[in-house]
Amino acid sequence: MASRSRAHADTGTKLEQNLHVFQSDHFDADAFVQSKCHSLNEKEIRQLCSYLLDLKRASAEEMRRSVYANYTAFIRTSKEISDLEGELSSMKNLLSTQATLIHGLAEGVHIDSLSDVVPESTSDRSSTDEFREPSDLEKWLTEFPDHLDVLLAERRVDDALLSLDEGECVASEAKEKKTLGHAVLLSLQTAIAERRQKLADQLAEIACQPSTRGAELRAAISALKKLGDGPRAHSLLLNAHYQKYQFNMKNLRPSSTSYGGAYTAALSQLVFSGIAQAATDSLAIFGKEPAYTSELVMWSTKQTEAFALLVKRHALTSSAAAGGLRAAAECVQIALGHCSLLEARGLALCPVLLKLFRPSVEQALDANLKRIEEITAALAAADDWELTHPPSVTRISSRPVGVLGLTGAYQHKFQVVRIGSI
Q1: How far apart are CA 309 and CA 319, in angstroms?
Q2: What predicted TM-score, i.e. pTM, was given to this entire model?
Q3: Nearest to residue 404, comparing CAs of 393, 413, 415, 396?
Q4: What confidence tens digit (pLDDT) does each residue in 235-254 have?
């Protein structure tokens, strides 16, 4: 046991020494190859290259399997990280607001405590300041909340966003240069936060309305993203597309007398066109950010699974139970045809469908095989072959009797059984 442990330790030390060469900042790949291959002939070099290529392919395949095996966990983790970042941002804003409020209250208490000992000259100066003309900043501070309320009431989203940005700039500059008191600055920040939240709720309400479609939906989602609520905006976008194709599915009702392929074609067109439009809008507004891409993949997978369950319930189950292999295969082919169009948008959902459709197809195949066995057994039982002795045949020559000479040796009856189409 001790010798084995020592051997493992020596192997690990040797491997670490070999890898140490590649960790150097001055590693020269050409010189390293020359030092290792200078004594090899052409055949040995070709074998080495082939071996390295095989290792490269095996490594790539192993990495691909590892990615596929952990892809669901990766997507779930990315979504949780995104949600956690949103919660941390909300907590940061809340703490900042609370700190500003505390400073404002402390300053107010300090001012109240000094109001009883204000010198007479200060009182005269204050009375004089009451009659002076307000500055442009003071006028802007007075008009800013009312102006924002008007923009929100008129649903002028772009103008409201510009006004909010302007307010943020004024507040940031005032905080940096200390041109406003804490109470005034707190009032401005509170007004901005309240109107920002009101605008976000207004945009979310617009996105949730069934009548919101196309450019109007994209504009509302984009504005909500600009307000800093990206996760909520992306979820609302996906939900809007879900509600849209769910509304269109109300007019699609399967019938026991209808053709299963027609129902599958109509349903798959609705579902996968909705997923395709959602993917297009997500890419246009949010780009290829991993958090939003992961949410899109999870949402698309969920919609595909729901679609597969509907097809199985209304088309595949009855066909599979009756042994209709052709009808079942055609339904699967139609669904896969529509689903494969999403691969151009980076959504490979065909494996999800195949996994869910496979039991139904296998059931239809088993039913067909069972039917074939029953028909074959019936044919075998219906055949009535009788072997009789052939009549005496006089041999004229030593040549063997031909096959045609034995046709009369057998008498049989054929019963033709019509096999229905499978």
Answers
A1: 14
A2: 0.58
A3: 393
A4: 889 998 988 888 888 877 76
